[in-house]
Design goal:
It contains 14 helices and 22 strands. The chain is of the alpha+beta class. A six-stranded mixed beta sheet has the order 3-2-1-4-6-5, with helices on both faces. The protein has a five-stranded antiparallel beta sheet with strand order 7-8-11-10-9. A five-stranded antiparallel beta sheet has the order 12-16-19-20-21, with no helix packed on it. Strand 7 (about 245) and strand 8 (about 250-255) form a beta hairpin. Helix 6 (about 130-140) crosses helix 8, helix 6 packs across helix 9 and helix 9 crosses helix 11 (about 265-270). It is globular, with a radius of gyration of 25 Å.
């Protein structure tokens, strides 16, 4: 078992992580089974390791027990290590973030400081294949595209995940073969968080009811990764086939475009770099000749046999990136962001117009922005089946042209979340009785 496990991890590191054995690696060592296995396997494979342990003091004696265990393990193995104590409640209050987000920010900020200070090439974390399946499901339940179904990456910037190739059971069996102890975080057994419910309730049921489903899911993640690579490559080829540039104008032959089965998605991939969203692209294919659409940088015209796109000559849309970890946003409008942890959510806390709430999954989005509305913008209003054009909402509200142009849109990864001051969307809805969410109010 021991040799097979080591060989499997070494092959994965060589093919997917690219760790240089001559440069130190910083290992995030909590003391749990996964991080202890990561620590021991990297040492066994000859990597130069330095350990880092965070004591958040959130579990009383259990937190101090974990620190003692890590200290004794590192001393026993002769490995240098660092321990840092954090005041999480203070950080939450100062930065207005949730408990989970505070711990994550404190942890990775310190890890990166240590990585640079000690000349380490990577921060090694202990995610394994079961964690990857959980991520797959969480993204799927939230609503995602191909990229979201590819799971976690073996290497992402300065972070590597050498254990993605092995399961939790393989880790436990390997530790048992070494007679290696570890500590257990009791909060992992509680089902108050989405990932814990998935890990402790949903997935065990799937595995017991459908034989071989775990291997099938991992195969699906692998297939989706390959499909995503092929998709990106193929779209690049098709983009060249269906479009041509003359000066600053992009011309798309709608007859050629229509010959593709999934022409909506293809058109979106062509126009996405120019700032157009998927709902706009879908509407373009059914729009009458003469209709116009705009993005932040371009304007588009629907002609009889072509779609023509050209840069906006004078108009430049304001786009403001919003950091949801901030407590107060002042530009372009004032927003107050409150991260709630421990208090049950009630619809009475929001009005859906000036005060809205989102579940914590929104914190996983890569980019949240405030911008003005665009022709063709569409969203899914809260409490309504189907979608609605923003322009139709404005008509219903009897807004003047000036009021329309002054209205701000909150958008995350291309999906409209809130027409500020008027209507919230269905996206990132807060579940009933949730105790972890954020409230945003406009002032």
């Amino acid at each position: 078992m021991e040799e097979r496990f080591l060989n499997k991890v070494k092959a994965f590191i060589d093919s997917d992580c690219g760790i240089d054995a001559s440069v130190p690696v910083l290992v995030a060592l909590s003391g749990g089974a996964d991080s202890v296995a990561l620590f021991r396997v990297l040492l066994a494979l000859g990597y130069d390791c330095r350990a880092a342990h965070c004591n958040f003091h959130l579990r009383g004696d259990e937190s101090n027990r974990d620190e003692r265990f890590v200290t004794e393990l590192c001393q026993l193995l002769g490995v240098k290590f660092d321990v840092k104590h954090f005041d999480v409640p203070y950080y939450m209050k100062e930065h207005g973030v949730s408990l989970e987000m505070a711990c994550r920010e404190l942890r990775y900020e310190w890890f990166e400081q240590l990585r640079l200070e000690h000349g380490c090439q990577y921060i090694a974390v202990a995610h394994h294949s079961d964690d990857n399946i959980e991520t797959f499901f969480l993204n799927a339940l939230r609503g995602t595209g191909i990229a979201g179904l590819t799971g976690m990456k073996p290497r992402n910037a300065n972070v590597v995940r050498p254990l993605l190739c092995v399961s939790r059971n393989e880790i436990l069996e390997w530790l048992e073969s070494l007679h290696q102890d570890f500590v257990t975080d009791s909060t992992n057994l509680e089902n108050d968080a989405r990932r814990n419910r998935l890990r402790n309730v949903v997935l065990p049921t799937i595995y017991s009811e459908f034989e071989g489903s775990k291997d099938s899911l991992l195969k699906t993640i692998e297939n989706m990764t390959r499909c995503n690579d092929l998709y990106n490559e193929s779209v690049g080829v098709m983009r060249n086939i269906v479009s041509e540039r003359e000066g600053d104008t992009l011309t798309i032959d709608t007859e050629i475009l229509g010959s593709f089965d999934n022409c909506e998605m293809l058109l979106y991939e062509i126009l996405k770099p120019l700032g157009f969203n998927y709902d706009q692209c879908r509407d373009m294919l059914t729009s009458a000749v003469g209709r116009h659409f705009t993005s932040s940088t371009h304007k588009l015209a629907i002609n009889r046999t072509t779609i023509e796109v050209e840069p906006l000559a004078e108009y430049k849309e304001e786009i403001h990136i919003i950091d949801l970890d901030d407590e107060i946003v002042t530009e372009p409008i004032k927003l107050t962001i409150t991260h709630v942890h421990g208090n049950k959510f009630s619809p009475a806390m929001v009005d859906g117009k000036n005060v809205v709430a989102f579940n914590n999954d929104i914190l996983q989005c890569s980019e949240v922005v405030l911008r003005h509305w665009r022709e063709g913008d569409r969203f899914k209003p809260f409490g309504m089946h189907g979608s609605k054009l923003i322009s139709d909402l404005f008509t219903d509200l009897k807004l003047s042209e000036k009021e329309k142009n002054n209205t701000w849109i909150l958008e995350a990864d291309g999906e409209i979340l809130w027409v500020v001051g008027h209507r919230a969307a269905q996206a990132f809805k807060v579940p009933k009785d949730s105790t972890n969410y954020l409230i945003i109010s406009s002032n």
